[in-house]
């Protein structure tokens, strides 16, 4: 039996095809963020753990997903646009949060020109998103 980590990072297929190291970077960040949130006591009650999927998207796929999110039933899902490039969908009854994060066109251009910035850009962006989630859920910042 495999235990699933509370925080997972999913990468859009187009981003995977453009940035060869994005999967290994996201795997490393997934481990790092799970450890940081564990030490910040996000999982004190093992029967009430919020699972978070951070979904990295292209600017175009983010726009398409954003349109779809707006069609979700609001009585089941709490939708929170954190910024122009981040939107979260919380299913409170299931304790699941899906967060769509766009790699904007300018970020895409930057990491295309300077691939060494990929890891630090994603680390900063995802860290910021997790702290927004922490604030929303009344959890300790990481």
How would you describe what is shown here?
- The protein is 45% helix and 23% strand.
- The chain has 142 residues and is an alpha/beta fold.
- The protein has one domain (7-39, 49-134).
- It has a five-stranded mixed beta sheet with strand order 1-2-5-4-3.
- A hairpin with a 2-residue loop joins strand 3 and strand 4.
- Helix 2 (22-39) runs parallel beside helix 5.
- The longest helix has 20 residues, at 118-137.
- The model has no long low-confidence stretch (mean pLDDT 92).
Strand-helix topology:
Layout: E1 7-11, H1 13-18, H2 22-39, E2 51-58, H3 59-69, E3 78-83, E4 86-91, E5 96-103, H4 105-113, H5 118-137
Parallel strand pairs: 1-2, 2-5
Antiparallel strand pairs: 3-4, 4-5
| Cα distance spanning the termini | 29 Å
Radius of gyration: 15 Å
Number of domains: 1
- By oligomeric state, this entry counts as single chain
Q: Please, what is the average pLDDT?
A: 92
Tell the overall outline: globular
Largest sheet: 5 strands, mixed
Number of strands: 5
Strand order of the largest sheet: 1-2-5-4-3
Poorly predicted ranges (pLDDT <50, ≥5 residues)?
A: none
Approximate strand percentage: 15-25%
Q: Which class of secondary structure composition applies to the elements?
A: alpha/beta
Helix content: 40-55%
